[in-house]
């Protein structure tokens, strides 16, 4: 198109020179030529812009695998072939990467599961030994190894895409969900003298995967027990709305600095007040991924006075 425009421009210039040879001293041929040249340039610019827009639209169609192109097949075919080839290569690479992550996550989970039996046996034998510094050290190191294995399993779930593939929401009892999550933290709560309570309406149900959501709620409760002072209270409460249910965990801990509230859901994030506590910063990340995989959401707010309010929102129907 640029060559055609140049040829037309040369023809107009030659015509102007010819006309000027007959009308020497008149400005009308020059004015007419200038007007015509401007109109021609504007027309070519609009045409080129329209062609570029059509070409970009056809490139998008080629990326989406469509064939109803607006420009000629001769113009789009080489581009379409290259784009489809590149897209297929990227899709193949993404599938291989995703499959590798899934296989790695499954392998890590299997290894961690196989390690639990000998680890439990080592702890049992150490506890059967006469009390001594050596037996206490064995139990301590076994507990540390158990903690690292649990963290490794959680990390593999975050990285391997296992959550999205294995979460299957169904209509479940919220009371059963709260009972399962609370039961997992009862021993540690009793050790610290923390009172656990629940306020769940009778017959309240929601759409969620019981096993995975129980783990998410259990993570929040575990953090509440870990950071709450001895002799405090922790309550799990639920409310029903039109399209969702809200599940709250209220504690009397020190709270979270306001500037850290958006950061606590990030992987491996450790707050200033929690860096000396046990943990690697994966639990809340996993919790958020589990809830979001079920079309829900989770948030945290500081309560008035002291403590935090963690809220999980799940679809009601």
Written description of the protein model:
By secondary structure, this protein is an alpha+beta fold. It folds into 3 domains: 2-71; 89-164, Helix Hairpins (Orthogonal Bundle); 167-315, 2-Layer Sandwich (Heat Shock Protein 90), CATH 3.30.565.10. The chain has helices spanning 2-22, 28-63, 73-128, 133-160, 162-166, 174-192, 210-227, 283-292, and strands spanning 170-173, 195-199, 205-208, 233-240, 244-250, 297-302, 308-315. Strands 2-4-5-7-6 form a 5-stranded mixed sheet, with helices on one face. A two-stranded antiparallel ribbon has the order 1-3. A hairpin with a 3-residue loop joins strand 4 (233-240) and strand 5 (244-250). The longest helix is centred in the first third of the chain and has 56 residues, at 73-128. The mean pLDDT is 77.
């Amino acid at each position: 198109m640029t060559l055609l425009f140049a040829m037309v421009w040369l023809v107009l210039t030659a015509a102007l020179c010819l006309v000027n040879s007959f009308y020497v001293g008149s400005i009308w041929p020059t004015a007419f030529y200038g007007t015509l040249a401007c109109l021609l340039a504007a027309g070519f610019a609009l045409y080129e812009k329209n062609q570029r827009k059509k070409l970009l639209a056809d490139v998008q169609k080629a990326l989406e695998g469509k064939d109803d192109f607006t420009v000629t097949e001769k113009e789009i075919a080489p581009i379409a072939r290259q784009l489809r080839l590149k897209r297929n290569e990227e899709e193949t690479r993404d599938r291989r990467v995703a499959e590798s992550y899934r296989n790695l996550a499954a392998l890590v989970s299997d290894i961690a599961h196989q390690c639990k039996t000998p680890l439990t046996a080592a702890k049992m034998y150490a506890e059967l030994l006469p009390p001594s510094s050596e037996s206490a050290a064995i139990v301590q190191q076994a507990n540390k190894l158990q903690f690292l294995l649990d963290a490794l399993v959680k990390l593999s779930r975050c990285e391997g895409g296992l959550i999205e593939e294995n979460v299957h929401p169904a209509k479940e009892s919220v009371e059963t969900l709260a009972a399962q999550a609370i039961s997992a933290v009862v021993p540690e709560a009793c050790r610290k003298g923390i009172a656990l309570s629940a306020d769940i309406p009778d017959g309240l149900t929601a759409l969620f995967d019981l096993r995975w959501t129980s783990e998410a709620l259990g993570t929040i409760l575990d953090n509440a027990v870990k950071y709450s002072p001895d002799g405090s209270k922790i309550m799990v409460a639920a409310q029903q709305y039109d399209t969702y249910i809200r599940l709250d965990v209220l504690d009397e801990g020190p709270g979270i600095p306001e500037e850290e509230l958006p950061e606590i859901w990030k992987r491996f994030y450790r707050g200033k007040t929690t860096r000396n506590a046990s943990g690697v910063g994966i639990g809340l990340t996993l919790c958020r991924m589990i809830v979001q995989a079920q079309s829900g959401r989770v948030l945290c707010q500081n309560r008035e006075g002291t403590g935090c309010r963690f809220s999980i929102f799940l679809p009601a129907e």
